[in-house]
Amino acid sequence: AVETAAACVLLTNVFHRYGHRYANRGYRYALIDSGHIGENLRLATAAEGLGVFTALRFRDDALNALLGIDGREEAVCALHCLGRPGQGGVGLPVRAFEEAQRSADFQPGPAWSTPEIFHAATSLVPGEGAPPPAATAKRAALPDAAALPLREPPERSVAWAIRERRSTRRFSDAAVSLADLAYLLSLAQGNPAARLAPGVELRIVAHRIRGLEPGIYRYRADVHQLVAFRKGDLRGPLRRVCLGQDKAERAAAGVAMVADIGAASAAGDRLYRDQLLESGAIGQRLYLGAEAIGLSARNLAAFFDDSLNGLLGVDGRREAVIHLTMLGAGD
Predict the structure, then answer these.
(1) Architecture, CATH, for domain 7-121
(2) At 121, is the secondary structure helix, strand, or coil?
(3) In this structure, which of 6, 20, 56, 78 has its CB flanked by the most CB atoms within 10 Å?
(4) What angle do the packed helices 26-47 and 114-121 form, to 10 degrees?
């Protein structure tokens, strides 16, 4: 797919730009941003009738050398191959590489930042036998789960939504319909072909959704249902764990992306990088979908990890929140 694609787009990150603002969390948001940007490219390419293949397994050192960057302060984080479907094999799998075992041959110096160390620890080296990510088994629908209504898709184009996409500065107190929330969730995870990596689950914090009790819900993407986890008004608790940001309280709902860290440990550290890209792609689809139906979105990067994990019922070790997008009516 790489050799026969009409063009390849490589996304790089300069890590100190994120570390300056987010400190040790900088790597998380560098990769999430790459997921947001890459999803714009993938959706725009598909809208033009072209094919796109996102290569998650590539020789980091070789691509960095190709671009003349050092792979430490600046490094390739994503590779997107574009072409016409059926002409050149876009969509075929690329050669696998095994995970680098960095404990013996990689020793960061005192000047290395945390984002730089994270990226080096998830880099790939030549080899064979890297197992593919484990497939997620389809689960049966639960009788007590909330079935989600259908909504007519908006008339707005993908290109329009990308041009108009904004992060709202303030949410109003208006409620959002369950049909609108269901539509956004279907965009976020309803199409298996859009998935970049496994092991990311959505948990919904519902504040003001018409037709849905306030509380926390798990989104079952495989059957398009919401499963109640905890009922109650959580506007105040969510605001507190998000460092007092009023958007966490005033939004109609929050969508938390929960990564299966245990799966990443079993499949190799590289899967954690993939899950960050996947979370960014999900966040971008939420943004664009909200824009298209007249709603607003805002990512919240600042939250107390342990507190938010506890609020959502995850342990922070095998599962952890890595991204949070708030949705609602803009003020």
Answers:
(1) 3-Layer(aba) Sandwich (3.40)
(2) helix
(3) 78
(4) 60
